[in-house]
Amino acid sequence: MPSAMLPLVRAIVGDIVRLARELVDRQQRLQNLMVDRPERDASDPYVDELQQVGEQLERDERQLGEYVKELQDLGVELK
């Protein structure tokens, strides 16, 4: 890998690390919230918020995949 690519690779890896940590944290918080909840119920005042959090997790997971693809396109394998 040419040394000129190192700053870009470093930036992408930094984004991956940051986003992966955020994803783990949010997934844990969401799981904690869901433990004592009954099945999704329209009368639950937090159902919309929980759905939004789930959708954001999905978007962030896709973003993480895009970062990994960027590295692959540069010829870098993430381990």
In words, what does this structure look like?
This protein has 79 residues and is an all-alpha fold. It contains 2 helices and no strands. The chain has helices spanning 6-35, 47-73. Helix 1 (6-35) runs antiparallel to helix 2 (47-73). It is elongated. It starts with 5 loop residues before the first helix and ends in a 6-residue tail after the last helix. The mean pLDDT is 87.
What class do helices, strands and sheet pairing give?
Answer: mainly alpha
N/C terminus separation: 16 Å
**Total count of strands:** 0
Largest sheet: none
- The topology string of helices and strands comes to HH
Shape: elongated
Bin the helical content: over 70%
Question: What's the gyration radius in Å?
Answer: 17 Å
Count the DSSP helices: 2
Strand content: under 5%
Average pLDDT: 87
Low-confidence stretches: none
